[in-house]
Amino acid sequence: MTPAARVQTAIEILDAIAAAARDGGAPADAIFAEAMRARRYAGSKDRRAIRNHVYDAIRSIRSAPVSGRAAMLALADADAELAALFDGASYGPAAITADEPRAETGLATTALMKLFDPLVGKAERAAMLVRAPLDLRANALRSSRDELASIFPDGEAIAGLADGWRLPGETAAVQHTAYAEGQFEVQDAASQFAAAALAAEAGQTIVDLCAGAGGKTLAIASATGDAAAILACDTNRARLQQLPPRANRAGATRIETLLLNPGQERAMLADRMGKADRVIVDAPCSGSGTWRRSPELRWRSTPARLDRHVAEQAKLIDLGSDLVAPGGKLLYAVCSIIEREGRAQVDDFLKRHSGWTADGDFLPAGVGRAAGGGYLLTPGHDGCDGFFLARLTAPC
Predict the structure, then answer these.
(1) Mean pLDDT throughout 131-142?
(2) Domain spans of the chain, in order of start
(3) Which residues are catalytic?
């Protein structure tokens, strides 16, 4: 493919990604993969160049553009070499005209940024779209961080995490045989801090209410030496089905999965009420804390979607609290930097639930910053995804 043809292909893919973002369709990675399958004539260099164009645009444009061309034109205005490829050549993009629409660049819309937690200032915003590193968690059931260090010597330890090991973002870690052997999982440091903050212990009964594919579930099993009874729940069958084979690979034998029917969660968990020593509620959210990894999520943020997330979070944290035994603990976690999903959600919970208290100092020294009844982790301050964590203790 010619350089100009690569740009035109990127424009067409961006059209599909923007439409999917507006309509709640497939994620960008899936759309890109499908587009490449339909263009088998594209070589590896072509695919790499096209991907760079696509993701440079996604990172640069603050909201879903009117077209892929408008997104690429915004980049071309600041890049003479890119602009020169808009020459009207065969298979390439048409020549640029001055009055064409350009997408707006920036982190996010002003309206969306006004929803950020007050701790997310200008310096933090600059770190939100820098490419993320690759964080690994050594599986203590099969390995150790020292072993990861010998396998991946170009990495470094993650401060505050006994099993965390950080690598350059482009490292193909999962292709190593150690991954197939269950020696480690790919898991951002923020998620590792969340699992550790639950303070789970051997012999306890633990419920992961929104387990998904089980990343934090497996981290809890590792931390407890596979000696805690863990119930992993979710309403998404496809995601939850990924957990049993992952647990088998990791050597975690005491994880039970429960697929919950939406709207029937409380009834299906009736016999578990008030019996769990620990409950983790990693609630569905805007995902604003993961923009470094999934920048297209900015394009999917709407007031209506945020309202639905906030309502669902309140329902889940209430359900989770009913599962906790007297004196037990609930960890509320969202990969979000939006105030309504973090400190405001916990403040409202504490108003609804007399006798519950918010724990302090449950993170390693220097990790996170106090945000109401919890802590906010951010890329700029903590070098990890944006996360809000609150650990709550039930009345005895």
Answers:
(1) 96
(2) 3-106, 134-186, 189-393
(3) 335
Amino acid at 79: D
pTM over 0.90: yes
Look at the domain 189-393 and name its fold: Rossmann fold (3.40.50)
Please state which CATH class domain 134-186 belongs to: alpha beta
pLDDT at 129 over 90: no
Q: What percent of the chain has pLDDT over 70?
A: 100
- pLDDT value at residue 334: 98
